[in-house]
Write a structure and sequence with these properties.
- This protein has about 450 residues and is an alpha+beta fold.
- It has three domains: about 110 residues, no CATH class; about 190 residues, no CATH class; about 100 residues, no CATH class.
- It is built from nine helices and 15 strands.
- The protein has a six-stranded antiparallel sheet with strand order 3-1-2-5-4-6.
- α7 packs antiparallel against α8.
- It starts with a helix and ends with a strand.
- The N terminus is likely disordered.
Length: about 450
């Protein structure tokens, strides 16, 4: 008892061992802005992991806050973050401030009074938020097409000069029969979607008599070979930096047993996964996956969609699963669909273009800035969903560049270090005074800070 009291006293004075900051899922299901009833400061909390909209609203209501589904907080000035775990889900509260002298009290407020784990921002001695703890960039890396000679002993490639060309993208694939990891960078791919370790389904390593069936073993080998040629191996392999994300190809026994039922349904094409983005097969070594025009394609990037879906439908039937059980269900990373299907309303906080051409937004610094026609779809991920019809102007900050602050960009002028993605050349079309346009600004891919309809001055 005495030890416990002493530890509490030392904690208040800043001496007890600091809590370890947990590794949390990177996907964000929503956020909540509220006034902390204890500190009387406005804070914002992100909901990481498999939160439902009902759970988010219930938690936010308890603080009298305002919910935004599918959108992160992105406060411009923070001392750090307080993290809590709730039944496998996580809350990450942004703690605002710019005074280094407040770091100690902020840590104690989080860990001693709030019972959370404090993750300091750079101002409080933490790491740069654009760097992960291993020193690698976590800013979204745009895809590049890498071409190289085939590995020794492998046949010539299909590209000019016998080279093998591969898109380094989560929806990319190398040539059939080759390994994606031999011809592309998985480090780049892992920046393009939330990667985190997830255990396999219970009983994944159980003996499977089907491996003795030649016909089944042949189909399983084909499925494995197809996946091995795609970027899926970057996260679904024991070589992933922090361990595999759920099922993995080199698992002992039958790797299919590592799937949860939801993953089997995605493989069968029973859940729409078109929000992940896709290349046309002629640009992707013959591999394709689900698109908004073909939402019932398997989640896997494959050269034979029908064959891949047949395999997973049979697995689903073996488990007693039926397609109607997944009706209306979306891909597990909800914010992709939330943003793709988002429809904006009028700007209400002064966002828009000023008479002298400056673009004003709210929510923090930006790496991507769009001005679109009023009825355009919301942009999300490359290669086919990040430049929707109706885009008038799009500019980006390269991963190594400094994000832009609100008011520092003028319409039609690309800031130093930025890149204009649309139009390909020349200035964008002039805005028509009094007409409404869609202003879409993001801190990074899938991290919007402003999405609203502005009126041109």
């Amino acid at each position: 008892m005495l030890c416990r009291i002493m530890c509490v006293l030392v904690a208040v004075l800043g001496g007890c061992a600091k809590k370890e900051v947990p590794v949390i899922p990177e996907e964000i299901a929503g956020s909540c802005r509220y006034e902390n009833r204890f500190s009387r400061k406005f804070e914002c909390r992100d909901y990481h992991g498999d939160w439902t909209e009902e759970q988010i609203r219930q938690d936010c209501d308890s603080w009298g806050g305002e919910v935004t589904i599918g959108q992160a907080c992105n406060l411009e000035q923070v001392l750090g973050y307080c993290i809590w775990e709730q039944e496998g889900r996580y809350i990450r509260a942004s703690l605002p401030g710019n005074d280094p002298g407040a770091c100690g009290s902020t840590l104690r407020g989080c860990e001693f009074f709030g019972r959370g784990a404090f993750d300091p921002a750079p101002i409080c001695g933490g790491v740069d938020p654009d760097q992960d703890r291993g020193g690698g960039l976590v800013v979204f890396q745009q895809p590049v097409r890498r071409c190289q000679d085939p590995l020794p002993g492998e046949p010539p490639g299909r590209s000019p000069g016998g080279q093998v060309c591969t898109w380094e993208m989560i929806s990319g694939a190398t040539e059939p029969g080759r390994r994606f990891a031999d011809y592309a960078s998985c480090d780049r791919v892992r920046t393009q979607r939330p990667y985190y370790p997830v255990p396999t389904a219970p009983g994944a390593d159980r003996p499977d008599e089907r491996l003795q069936d030649p016909e089944y073993a042949q189909e399983l080998a084909w499925v494995r070979s197809q996946i091995e040629s795609t970027a899926c191996v970057c996260c679904h392999s024991s070589s992933a930096p922090r361990g595999p994300s759920n099922w993995y190809l080199d698992a002992p026994g039958n790797f299919i047993n590592g799937f949860f039922d939801r993953g089997i349904a995605m493989g069968a094409g029973w859940i729409d996964t078109s929000g992940l983005g896709a290349y046309p097969p002629e640009e992707n070594n013959g591999f394709s996956r689900a698109t908004p025009d073909n939402p019932h394609h398997t989640i896997f990037v494959t050269t034979d969609d029908a064959r891949m879906r047949r395999f997973f439908v049979r697995e689903a039937e073996r488990r007693g699963l039926r397609q109607e059980m997944f009706a209306g269900m979306r891909y597990v990373f909800g914010p992709i669909d939330e943003q793709r299907l988002f429809r904006p309303s009028a700007c209400t906080r002064g966002e828009g273009v000023t008479p002298d051409g400056r673009i004003v937004w709210r929510g923090g610094r930006a790496r991507y800035l769009y001005v679109l026609e009023e009825g355009a779809a919301s942009p999300t991920v490359p290669p086919n969903l990040d430049l929707p019809a109706g885009t008038i102007w799009r500019i980006d900050v390269p991963p190594e560049g400094e994000p832009w602050a609100s008011g520092t960009v003028r319409y039609g002028q690309v800031p130093a270090g930025g890149r204009q993605r649309f139009p390909l050349s020349g200035p964008p079309a002039p805005l028509v005074s009094g007409r409404r346009y869609y202003l879409y600004v993001t801190a990074d891919i899938l991290q919007p800070v402003t999405r609203c309809l502005m009126v041109a001055p």
